[in-house]
Amino acid sequence: DAGITQSPRHKVTETGTPVTLRCHQTENHRYMYWYRQDPGHGLRLIHYSYGVKDTDKGEVSDGYSVSRSKTEDFLLTLESATSSQTSVYFCAIRRGDGNTIYFGEGSWLTVV
Amino acid sequence: QQQVKQSPQSLIVQKGGISIINCAYENTAFDYFPWYQQFPGKGPALLIAIRPDVSEKKEGRFTISFNKSAKQFSLHIMDSQPGDSATYFCAASSLPSNYQLIWGAGTKLIIKP
Fold it and tell me: What is the DSSP code string of B65-88?
């Protein structure tokens, strides 16, 4: 257990509405990540953070923004949700002792 | 060059058999190769990982075989059990940019009793 909590765990929202997913960690790790997982695509990095207010884009960042105002919280925002953003979203952290990445339990988002 | 190609997409193995999942990469700078296991409704969890200075690493029934010259690595599950039924992902990364893992597409493994 890497002390990662994602919320909400499940959400259904309408096209065009803003959505924010929250990732909370309890172990003070520097690196945090947001991935999306879709059938046939595996895990794709959306954004990552390497410290408070330090973030960068991953391979599928279009339509997403992130914020990290505190070490423990990493927020993912869909400014105007589209059906193509229906997915499972995973938050992850990297422990400072190596390359190992630990994932949260996931947030299932459906955009109708 | 950043891709990691994983095969097969799905695999059915009889209980007690050997499950083999393969991954290939192009980027010779990769120096960390983990395998993750994911059960339905859960996040991926690290199963086993290898660095290119060794050709094999074993943890219980799980073994990673690494072929640096062929740029391939594979996961072997010996004496496969129904509880091993899950989706398996290989990945790769390189220092110092090890914030980002490059992921294979995943293999859905079903172990038949």
Answer: EEETTTTEEEEEESS--GGG-EEE
DSSP A83: G
Residue B94 near residue B29 (C-beta atoms within 8 A): yes
Closest CA to B39 of B90, B99, B88: B88
How does pLDDT run across B46-64, given as a tens digit for each residue?
Answer: 999 998 899 999 999 999 9
Q: Which amino acid is at A104?
A: G
- Give the whole-angstrom CA distance, residue B57 versus residue A72: 34
Half-sphere exposure (Cβ direction) of A82: Cα atoms closer than 13 Å: 4
With an 8 Å Cβ cutoff, is A40 touching chain B? yes
End-to-end CA distance of chain A: 33
CA atoms within 13 A on the CB side of A37: 26
Which 3 state secondary structure label does DSSP give B112? strand
Contacts of B10 in chain A (CB under 8 A): none
Q: Which of B42, B49, B99 sits opposite A50 (nearest CB)?
A: B99
State phi, psi for B82 to the nearest 5 degrees: -55, -30
Q: How far apart are CA B24 and CA B70, in angstroms?
A: 8
pLDDT in tens, A58-110: 989 999 999 999 999 999 999 999 999 999 999 999 986 667 889 999 999 99
- Residue written as tokens 């597409």? B105
